[in-house]
Amino acid sequence: MRPLLLLAALLPFAGAVQAQTPALTPEAYRADALSIEGLVNANYAYLDRFPGGVMPMTETLRAEAAAVHDRSTLLRYAGHAITALADHHAITGASFSDDWGLVPSYSDLWIEPEGAVWRITAVREGSPAEAAGVRAGQTLDAVGGVTTTEAVRAFWAELGLEPGGDRDGYGARVLAAGRRDRARDLTISGRRLTLPNLYAGSTDRPPLSVSEDGPTLVIRFNDSLGDGETIAAFDAAMATARPGQPIRIDLTDTASGGNTSVARAVMGWFVTEARPYQIHNLPSEARETGVRRQWIEQVLPRPGKHHDGPVTVRAGRWTGSMGEGLTIGLAAIGARTEGGLMAGLLGAIYDFRLERTGMVIKFPAERLYAVDGTPREAFVAGAPR
Asked: Is residue 93 part of a domain?
């Protein structure tokens, strides 16, 4: 009982301390806004994507940062500053209800510019777009009745930026994902559709779906690579596998990523000794010290858990982040891959907490590579290796 009594004694004092903490000033919020540019330039792993090797900044963004005075204006500016990276793996830790949907986690259309058209190259399985009859090969003609070209231009004009390069596909995919608080108004191959966004109507699913396809045990991850229950679920599924049975691991619905504990637990079933599965590179250390840092991460066998049958990995555009890492890792230890391009999310994201307000922004601070040196974002599942 002593710890409980001690806690009870401390609670009033803790409340008093909190009550005495001065409110943040407008200057504190503004200082955090102005610090974001330096934070990105010191730590973002892919600065070579930008002219001069620095974060894109415009007079529009600088004026917005200078006008920040409270949490709301800071969060709005942080979202705009992160968007300027045109990187689907860079986000803020908080958001507004009317923010654009996150891609690929809450998107169902993958769009690439193709000459004068905006080509839909993939449609998410089981999504509202698929249910409405949208298919790969069709075109996104307009968003909210505005041509996609003009909508993309307006998207970037809000930040004082011009479209072009990586910004084109990024902008089109975000516009197609829509605002989080409303339905989408998309014109696709001449047909105007109203589609719900993917924030509406989500349902709880088990971590895995397990089935058999002929002689093959199929284990499909239901966007669960960050779920603490997934390891036990995978172990239970593998415990049903017959000796030597072919295994197909379906990662086509892992858009939200996850953590390496789950990924290494999966891979650990298929090795008998320590094996490398991905390469990490930390550019910020080279910038700070002039000395480059790179290391190889290994997967280790799991005592009492091993399967020696052939493994196939199915991936696709909604295989994201740790899903991509698991794909390249399984390929490194001998699995066959199929499915083509993945989400192409850049590197490994770190959380960066702004000094005064504690607000969090997240962006890639490490570059990641397959063990053969292929950048993870360029890995093509099924390509000859």
From this structure: no
**Using 50, 70 and 90 to split pLDDT, how confident is the model at 21?**
very low
Last residue of a domain, one of 144, 173, 195: 195
Give the pLDDT confidence of 317-343 residue by residue, as tens digits: 999 999 999 999 999 999 999 999 999
169 and 260, same domain (yes or no)? no
Number of domains in the chain: 2
- Among candidate residues 195, 221, 243, the one where a domain is terminated: 195
Q: Are residues 310 and 346 in the same domain?
A: yes
CATH number at residue 281: 3.90.226.10
The reply to whether omega before 104 is within 30° of 0 (cis) is: yes
Please tell me the predicted confidence (pLDDT) of residue 22.
59
Q: What is the pLDDT of residues 66-118, one digit of tens each?
A: 999 999 999 999 999 999 999 999 999 999 999 999 999 999 999 999 999 99
What is the mean pLDDT of the segment spanning 340-348?
Answer: 97
